[in-house]
Amino acid sequence: MRKELNKINQNLNKIVKERTLEFEEANTDLKSSKENLQKLNMELLMANTAKEGFMSMISHELKTLLVPARDYLEMLMRQKHLGELNTKQEKFIHVIYRNIIKLEYLVNDVLDIYKLDIGKLRLSKKLVNVDKLVKITISDLMILTIDKNTTLTYELKISKIVNVLSDQKRIEQGFSNLIKNSMDFVPKDFGIINLKAEITKDNAFVQFSAEDNGPGIQINEMDNLFKKFYQIDASLTRKHSGTGLGLVICKGIIEAHGGRIWVNKEFEPDACFIFTLPLLNDKEEKVL
User: Fold this and answer.
1) Read out DSSP for 225-240?
2) Strand duo 271-278 + 163-166: pairing
3) First to last CA, the chain
4) In angstroms, rounded to a whole number, what is the distance separating the alpha carbons of residues 183 and 177?
């Protein structure tokens, strides 16, 4: 009996030693995995930092090249400074100028998309008057409507004293992107874009909308419109040379303000984009 007990005890000790060794090996592997994970996180952080620095450097260098080119073209377009241009020269300079402006927009869009991806889109929020916000945005885009023979109207169903807490430049950028998107698709020479602003029924948001008489959007396309680089139709992409970033940036800006953006599926056969911004209550506005 004692021999059997000793044998059982030896077997148990052997099993304990084996399990202890396996546990120590597993613990070592776990420690190694943890160290590898920390190393990987550090490498990812360094890669993101390097990527952010690279993006900032590239955008800065591109802007450094584009700004003087744009400024000199503007001087040529004034004509009083460097002499008058004939009709053909003036036409060519306007073409160059428009493409430089498009390139500047593209550089800014790519940088903004990157900032949205890494959660570093900076906002400088302050009280912004909705009435002035809409009118400034429209005023800045009037020259584009003239070039494209498009009628841009607005309808404000709110008091002139209504304010929202927002980064005015960013909201103007988002609004402008929506309007430029509409301008690309409305009929040539008789395009119509109507902007509206009103308070939602629950008095929690200001709701903005941009309606146009373009070809409309298929229901199955609507959910994809706010995805990066998405284009509704390849033929339209070639025609309008868009990058598919404008609406994505709109979405990022609006959501960063606590609002949301969508396509009105009931607005047919034309297109209507809607976005909201939180409305301050009386207590919040007094604190500010």
Assistant:
1) TTSTT--S-HHHHHHH
2) unpaired
3) 87
4) 10
Region 174-192: mean pLDDT is 85
Dihedral, 97, 101, 103, 107 alpha carbons, nearest 10 = 150
| Residue 194 per-residue DSSP state | E
Q: Where are the alpha helices (DSSP H) in the chain?
A: 2-78, 87-117, 130-147, 168-185, 219-222, 234-240, 246-256, 282-287
Please give the full DSSP string across 83-122, using - where no structure is assigned.
Answer: ----HHHHHHHHHHHHHHHHHHHHHHHHHHHHHHHTT---
Cβ burial 224-241 (10 Å sphere, 16+ → b, else e): ebbeeeebbeeeeeeeee
Q: What are φ and ψ of residue 260, in 5° steps? A: -145, 165
Q: Are 276 and 206 in contact (CB under 8 A)?
A: yes
pTM confidence score: 0.68
Token pair 């509206």 is found at 196
CA distance 115 to 245: 13
Q: Provide mean pLDDT across the span 47-71.
A: 77
Q: Which long-range contacts (CB under 8 A, 24 or more apart) does 99-104 make?
A: 100/66, 100/69, 100/70, 100/73, 101/70, 103/62, 103/66, 104/63, 104/66, 104/70
